[in-house]
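ingest -> validate -> predict -> emit
validate: passed (alphabet ok, no gaps, 357 aa)
predict: started
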Amino acid sequence: MFKKITASARSAGIRLTTGWKDWRSDMAESNRWFGIGAGVIVVYLLVALVLGVIWSFEPEPFDVREAAVREVGGDESRLVTGVITTSALINVVDTMLNKRGGYLSNDVAPPGVWLDNIPNWEYGVLIQVRDLTKAMREAYSRSQSQSTEDKDLAAAEPQFNFDNSNWLLPATEKEYGEGVKALRAYLKRLSDPNEPSAQFYTRADNLNYWLSTVETRLGSLSQRLSASVGQRRLNTDLAGSPGAANATRLPEEMEVKTPWMEIDDVFYEARGTSWALIQFFRAMEIDFADVLEKKNAVVSVQQIVRELEGTQQTVYSPMILNGNGFGMLANHSLVMANYISRANAAIIDLRELLKQG
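emit:
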């Protein structure tokens, strides 16, 4: 009996020892795979962090005339009226879609999903692309209000009004790419002397049509930027309009303040808007040269571009600062608002010049 008990104990001890060794082996294997997985995740996050920094650099402005020459295959004889403006529009969209990191507004994975400055920059660019495409469809390509709209511009405009954050079925990039194809089809017809159906009319009223939209966009941006520190404003909605009324009664004085989490969003939207407008105004200066010279307004366009270029200066701070008034810290939004407001004032002056006979 004693021998049986001893044998059973030995057998149990052997099984226990074997089980312990197996458990330790399994744990070692699990730890090894856990370490490998953790290492892969750490490397991925580091790579994503580096890419995020690289992708956060905004693209540089481009030469609108050189871009137009490339679009027409190097044949400068095809640089007829409107080609440079159309080419500038095409290349602004191309740059937005194909810059470092590509189009980021619809990214759903790191590092794109972590970034918000460049997506807001893209949105600012997109708004100007939409406005200019609309102006080309409704004004620049038509001789009068009752004339037929251009088929390619009619196809391009709705493409750029597609949701800017859709990542699948269909992706935003695909829709905007279709818009670029339609613009290139228009450009090809415009630069072909044997294709009279495509036109670009450089009249003062056409330029004024687009400038009125730009004026309202910049005015809104200036107000949003200035509201970074909060302001008590009087209600001037109906000022100078005797007998006018609005739908809902508003207080005579209100406080306007951009939410703290949106301050950098508005700042980079303004940067994107200004970047796109720099290219467009440079193109307009060439295509509308005769109109501007007749109105003695060339220098006005140059001054607008100079003010907008001030918005593209390097931001050396790692974050957008929001100091108060004349305090110790800078307020980047107020500096940006200054450039935007001055550019907008120059646009208002330019519109007045264009209206004069």
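The first strand starts at residue 231 and ends at 234.
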